[in-house]
Records
---
Amino acid sequence: MPVTPAYTPEPRFFDLGDEYADAVRPADFPTTILRYRNDRAAASVGLEGLDEAEWIAAFGRFQPLPGQPGPIAMRYHGHQFRHYNPGLGDGRGFLAGQVRDDRGRLLDLGTKGSGTTPWSRGGDGRLTLKGGMREVLAATMLESLGVPTSRALSLIETGEALERGDEPSPTRSAVLVRLQHSHVRFGTFQRAAYHQRADMIEALVEHVRALYHPDVAAGDTPGLLAAIVEASARLTARWIAAGFVHGVLNTDNLNVTGESFDYGPWRFLPAYEPGFTAAYFDQTGLYAFARQPEAVFWNLTQLAGCLKLVADVEPLTEALNGFGPAYIRHLRAAFLMRLGVQSLGEAADQRLVDTTLALLREGGAALRWEPLFFDWFAGFSSSARALGGPRATLYQGETFDAFRFALFEHEPDLPERLEHPMFAQSEPEEMLIDEVEALWAPVATDDDWSPFQAKLARLEQAREAWGFEG
Ligand code: AMP
Ligand code: MG
């Protein structure tokens, strides 16, 4: 396998021993057709040199990459919509390997749709092609908007016919591989706590601390919780600023590094709507747009509860209570980032958040989420562009004046970014549901992948134009 010298296998999940996962075998798919490969992500871990046959062998047939011991399905539990489920675990995915990236981070090669495991619970272990395409689109869009996210590395169509209640069936199948900064979930801790295994919690705490939060001192369990709280607050703030609704914020879908992953029924907000819900099965709106901070906090309380087996309650509670202030701090930073302006101190930064939200609220459906940030990127440097653009008529009145005043107080941050050709266009890249369906339709009817590929190329341009750091 022609990996480059940058390829650094480091299968550290095995350090935990054999009580955290089960060795599994990948499905033997009837066909393997490469539909998407993320060469930039591959290059970050030294895998860009694989030719197509080698790529398919690694990410469609799952012949282990050098230095990787072979697939394991992780064990975990979780609260799904607040109901505890001890029957979870990797039911259609596995850990195919772990590698260091070019920033020194330990990343998992995680699969989705790679076959059944001991945790499939009667499910088929498969992923629909449309579901795979949706995960690629979500991850790519989120990365361009500066959200800490898993990246889709590979999508391979696998030639099976699947039955699904939420897609016209039979529907096509695929296997996805993502690069993710840890698949250790809150639910991984919940499983150990459920079995009253303080020793397992202790091992997990040390594993996560040493590999993902090395600034925390060994043995400082509340310190580790504080680091996870901080990372989760930052992630949540970035979702909000991106107008993103994850859709399924169960404890098995949140991990210890605050990097978002597992994109199923996600949506991006068309326009300001706090109650906007992504998943059709979320009837009560538990995971609606504006309830995401509350959902993440609730999940963190479950994690803290598990840590009670190995640490005192008081410092854990204190760490947990850091969520609110951290979220507000990160929300200010996320809005500054999205609007491309520098901080001017807490009060002025908060005014900018408040007036931006007020303008979006007042603008209703006419003022879409993404265009507002696009139009006003880098503050007053964009004034002529915004006021001469397609939404000029929305930019007037008292609420707008308050927004403009708050925005123009702030210095532009790297306004030379406006020279990127993206800002000469009148519309930004969005990812609303109609467009997602419109990208899927030509694949379904004519096997035409060109609109999907063109969209990904434009998102890559957008990522470069914004210049955000995840
Ligand atoms: P998710 O909502 O995608 O995070 O999945 C929740 C749980 O259901 C996880 O344990 C998954 O592995 C499992 N699961 C979801 N879809 C399937 C499937 N088609 N076959 C087997 N297990 C599945
Ligand atoms: Mg999941």
---
Amino acid sequence: MPRGFFITFEGGEGAGKSTQIHLLADRLRREGRDVLTTREPGGSPGAEAIRHVLLSGAAEPFGATLEAILFAAARSDHVEQVIRPAVESGAIVLCDRFLDSSRVYQGVTGGLASDFMAALERVTVNGLIPDLTVILDIDPEEGLRRASERRGKATADRFEKENLEIHRRRREAFLNIAAREPQRCVVIDASRSADAVSENVTEIVLRVIFDRAGLSEPTEAGSV
Ligand code: TYD
């Protein structure tokens, strides 16, 4: 059984991560591949319980350090209960947000020390680094407009409601990560239509999968 593939999607609010994951999963499944889609914070029963505490803002009064530890606890459970077993069984796992969101939201704009964040990350992911990270890049003004359209009358979550300047710093921080780790990260212009972005994402993901021995043979349902 070949090891599967772990692909994460990152970016600011309203960048279209969930739409892109959905389109890519459909495409890969049509080719007969085993695909698991998941998200953070959440993705396992334990982590989904923590998600509620984080996104409702209930943990905010306790400060950025405690929030970072809660994101890490949720991630650790998600990694060990869901992601690692799926990747080890040969699946392609598509995850909406992962370690880069913590680096950006808690580390950069949360102002936490980088050695603390690095130590927390090491313990949390326990060696499970994404094979590929797709960073969907969009002007935060446009992203927030899209997010508010999607939300309708529901209220913005703990992180969405922060000011534009913070969202701009997050965009820069994602781009900096991509510049520092070009072998893992690819930046995609997410201001285009969902179909155009999806074409771009699919082409990159198929190329990366194709390059990996063991997952590269054409399946019965079609070839890559
Ligand atoms: P979610 O409703 O999943 O929205 P989005 O479509 O933006 O992913 O909200 C997740 C929020 O949690 C989002 O504002 C980013 C934030 N977050 C962190 O601050 N740190 C993290 O490690 C993760 C995974 C998410």
